[in-house]
Design a protein that fits this description.
Layout lengths: L1 H88 L13 H39 L1
Helix pairs in contact: 1-2
Amino acid sequence: SLTDISAECEQMRAVLKDTDSMFATLRDASTADLSQVLADVKKYASDVVEAESRDLQASLRKRAEATEGDVNDRFKKLESRVLSELGGSGGGAGDDSEGHATPGRTKASDSQLLKKMTNRMSDFESQVSSQLQVLSQDIEKK
């Protein structure tokens, strides 16, 4: 019966050795899996943030372009209205005391006034455009 006990002990030792090896493998696998899961979660979060950032940039860029187009349209309407009002109201400004028109003086002053208005409107347009570009660049940075 001593040989039977010895055989049982050998079998138990083999089972314990296998169990120890299995636990070591599971321990290694669980540690590796945890770090892998963490890396996967970080990658997923990074991808989601990047995709949302691109969507937000595209949305803000569309808004900025729409706003810029609207401002340009309004500016053109204002410019044409001012020019038409200047062209329509300049008729009586150059009359002398007897009611005779002085064409040289009226055309020259109208011309100078139109140049000033055009320059000021161009300056305003460039200021608005530069502000929109700065806004667009700030949006792209975010």
